[in-house]
Design a protein that fits this description.
The chain is mainly α. The protein has one domain: Tetratricopeptide repeat domain (Serine Threonine Protein Phosphatase 5, Tetratricopeptide repeat, Alpha Horseshoe). 81% of the residues lie in helices and 0% in strands. Helix 2 packs antiparallel against helix 3 and helix 3 runs antiparallel to helix 4.
């Protein structure tokens, strides 16, 4: 084999080997994977901060943190449910109900989400809807 062909093949192998270090199996770069992981951690951190604020009765701050988590992960049912609960405590019934419903729409088998929606609806004197939500909570908690 000619030396230049061997040199090209070795070079190509080194480039491809280096590419494996830079690119993941799914075709995303390592940098993209690290960015995705950092974004997921940020959403988790906002959720944890929101829980801490809610635990101290700071529902406005909790709602703000839950909104930030949702801005990062719009499909996070648990964050929508927590936002709905904070909004309910703040007296924003319309938006609270929308967020609680969004949670169970995103994750139909979310037992806790159905439970919190049911409790909220009961407080709003929407007894039939509350019983339906609570029945789904019982169904999915099994």
């Amino acid at each position: 084999m000619k030396r230049w062909v061997l040199a090209v093949m070795l070079s190509a192998g080194m480039v491809l080997g280096g590419a494996m270090l830079l690119w993941g199996a799914d075709g995303s770069s390592k940098l993209q994977q690290e960015e995705k992981a950092a974004t997921a951690r940020a959403a988790q951190d906002y959720l944890k901060y929101g829980l801490a604020q809610a635990g101290e009765g700071r529902d406005a701050e909790a709602a703000k943190a839950f909104r930030q988590a949702i801005a990062i992960r719009p499909d996070w049912a648990e964050a929508h449910s927590l936002l709905g609960s904070s909004l309910a405590r703040l007296g924003d019934s319309r938006e609270a109900e929308a967020e609680l419903r969004k949670a169970v729409t995103l994750k139909p088998d979310y037992a806790e989400g159905w439970y919190y929606l049911g409790i909220f609806l009961k407080g709003e004197h929407k007894d039939k809807e509350a019983e339906e939500a609570l029945a789904k909570a019982r169904q999915y908690s099994r």
